[in-house]
Amino acid sequence: MTQMTIRRGPEFSRILGLGVARGENVVTNDDIAGPIESSDEWIRQRTGIVTRVRANEDTSVLDLAESASRDAIARAGIEPEEIDTVILSTITFPHMTPGGAPTLADRLGASPAAAWDISAACAGYCYAIGQADALVRSGQSRNVLVIGAEKMSDFVDPTDRSISFLLGDGAGAVVIGASDHAAIGPTIWGSDGSGADLIRQTNSWLELREDRSLPFPTLRQEGQSVFKWASFKMAPVASAAIEAAGLTPDDIKAFIPHQANVRIIDQMVKQIGLPEHVAIARDIADSGNTSAASIPLATERLYRDGAVSSGDLALQIGFGAGLVYAAQVIELP
Amino acid sequence: MAHPENEVLAHLAEIVSEETGIDTAEIQLDKSFTDDLDIDSLSMMTIVTLAEEKFDVRIPDEEVKNLVTVGDAVKFIAAQD
Asked: Is it true that the peptide bond before A112 is cis, omega within 30 degrees of 0?
């Protein structure tokens, strides 16, 4: 019997380039405090957020994704047509179908790349990195464009005190290709659907169809429960990612968690037991919570602040609605 | 195994003190977490989680709002098997 030919890939993959785009407008706490009867002081104390960035009304989530992607491809030193796979992580692309990734690939000049969206909320970027790493190492893909892009401001309720005031808009993209050494560690990921109600859309599209008096769906969260889950259950996941890569916390140069709340970040640092020398990403103070975009945005911020440089090892972890989570150690491009 | 209330108070006071910097002597049964000790909802969840670990008990998230005073928390923990 004739045997099939199976492609084999390189032993390792790495991030070749990073690009980001932030919403054009800086929104202060005072700008949004009125409808939630809050204050700049309360929001800073509870979340660490000083401002969040939000996009213009006529800027789409794909516009943000395209801008970040163009930078990532340029920094990777390749041409758009060399991208053969596009994975777009978003929960704010406003169409059930088609997904945003094929249109994005076409706009970038990457057609006929395989292109699809994933829905893993704030963990989506790390989920997609895990997929891209596996695709490259299997030989299925050569250059994978991974994008976390969100226009959260399209799905906020200005009177919501649970999550809306945290949210910002942005996109981060990376190109992942072959490497001659290990530069993306094993992905530790998982889910807990028993917590599906902790971060959710207010009502489903079908409920809106049945009852047109319902408000346009926006996001809500059970803040205290999410805080507890993220602060204490995610630290062991992050530690497992370090261990799976054959490293110790001393080997890590930067910790780049999803930017959900600075109090979660601080508690995770404590629980993981990260040493003093580790640079901690706290881009949330200026950019807010941008869901799938927050980790690449925070990574870019660390470069800009001079806290990291190419070749440094960073521990990244995404966690959010699902509940879902994913973590891995990466070598910064 | 149930924990004696005086033992729970002593350990809980240490946890609260560690999280907030408040002197353990001030953490007494009649003190309200919010009004007297100025502990916000996120710090309260940290205290609850650390107490769960310390006493090997489960304090459901929906129960936390009922733990108004230090005494409420001590009683709830001490009553757990």
From this structure: yes
Q: Among this protein's residues, is A258 annotated catalytic?
A: yes
Which domains, and CATH codes, for chain A? Answer: 12-179 (3.40.47.10), 188-331 (3.40.47.10)
Q: Look at strands A85-89 and A114-118 and give their pairing.
A: parallel
Closest listed residue to residue A157, CA positions, set A145, A169, A165, A149 = A165
Cβ within 8 Å, pair A224-B45? yes
Domain total for chain B? Answer: 1
- Interface confidence, given as ipTM, is 0.89
Using DSSP, state whether A332 is helix, strand or coil: coil
Contacts of B42 in chain A (CB under 8 A): 46, 223-224, 227, 261, 263
Residue B27 belongs to what domain range?
5-78
CATH code for position B59: 1.10.1200.10
Residue A189 has pLDDT above 80, yes or no: yes
pTM of the complete model beyond 0.80:
yes
Chain A CB contacts of B44 under 8 Å are: 224
Q: Is A122 a catalytic residue?
A: yes
Q: Which residue of A has its CA nearest to B49?
A: A228
Which residue of B48, B49, B52, B63 is the best one to mutate when testing the A interface, meaning the one whose CB has the most A CBs within 10 A?
Answer: B49
